[in-house]
Amino acid sequence: MIKKSLFLFLMMVTLSVQSQEDSTTNVYINTADQLMQSNSRLSLGGYGEIHYNQPLTKGLKESGTLDVHRIVMFMGYNFSSKTQFVSEIEFEYAKELWVEQAFLQHKLNKYMNLRAGLILVPMGIINEYHEPTTFHGVERPVIDNKIAPSTWREVGAGFTGTILKASLKYQAYLVGGLNGYDTKGVFSGTKAIREGRQKGSKAYFNQPAFAAKVEYFGIRNLNIGLSTYAGKSASKLNQKLNRDSTILVSRADSSTTEIMMIGADARYQLKGVELRAQFYYTNFSNSMEYNKFTSINGKQNDLPVANIGYYAEMAYNLLQTSDSPYALIPFFRYEWYDLHYKVNENTVKNEQYLNTMLTTGLTFKLHKNAALKADLQFYKSKQEADWSKTFNLGVGVMF
Fold first, then answer.
1. Nearest to 4 by CA among 337, 343, 344
2. Cα 377-381-385 angle, rounded to 5 deg
3. Regarding the domain delimited by 2-41+74-349, which CATH topology (the fold level of the hierarchy) does it fall under?
4. For the segment 68-78, what is each residue's pLDDT rounded down to a tens digit?
5. Is the model's pLDDT at 97 over the cut of 50?
6. Distance between CA atoms of 183 and 204, rounded to whole angstroms?
7. Would you kindly state where each structural domain of the chain is located, as residue ranges?
8. For residue 87, which of 98, 71, 72, 103 has the smallest C-alpha distance?
9. Is the pTM for the entire model greater than 0.70?
10. Rounded Cα–Cα distance for residues 41 and 35 (Å)
11. Are 356 and 370 in contact (CB under 8 A)?
């Protein structure tokens, strides 16, 4: 099954390697990187997106949703050519306020920077490049919600840099762990680890997790990324824990799980052609004990041993060969994920957690940083015979 899941990813990489004429090195930087490269002391930036989502159910009339999904402001300050600070403040759903990034970076040498503060976990593409004009579709890919919980950020420190001679960009951090148990179990089959993000908000800390990513851009127009996350979930039962008590130690151990996630992604662009692929696999150790301990009213939790997901996307700018300042980009994305890919012997595999999603639509760019979006999504689980459908419209900007 893993081989099948990787097929589209590897196919895209192979096609990319074979198609190199008239191409250039492909190095991606996000908004935070752009602020740190500014010549100004104080730099401002931001992005925003507004969505309309309309379910299309045969035989039923359903209300759509209008949502100012997020408005974000970046503020950066360059103390010197070596020392910078970056912050990202986000308003979600026109009412919630979050700090998504707040870190200090210092250049140690031309290959290495020290970074410390509230940091984006470098997993996949979307978690670092989530501005609405950087991806197609009104909504972000579903596996970047169900498996890798974008926007995923934790307080931590580590090193980042680019080695041009080796065509490598790297990041490696020690960060605060995910919240696995406060007064109840946080992880489950359907929610995976998403609710475990502590987001730097009074996060409790038992031991650090390790997060890293390496990007290779030595093949023209192709960027390949490999990511990993490894750590033991935090539990409030470890607070003031009497290590001499076998019962208390056993309870605390049962409230945690070791999480190992790997990711692979590829981005390719040549003239008007855009190809993307992404793959995630997460393993949970101790899931049997965790499920038993976090049962509620006799109903056992259903955290799996492993979940998995991937997508492949293709797009083409129809106005690429014209002198038009605009871009009209039809796209198609295929996604597949299984939140119960592997389960322990006491957990019944839920086929509603095995889903396929097809998204097709248009991105119309009035400017490279201002877009109108429209798409139609088809999705169903393995248990369902018919496809559910949703029509989406969106406005996205970044600056």
1. 337
2. 90
3. Porin (2.40.160)
4. 999 999 999 99
5. yes
6. 13
7. 2-41+74-349
8. 103
9. yes
10. 10
11. no
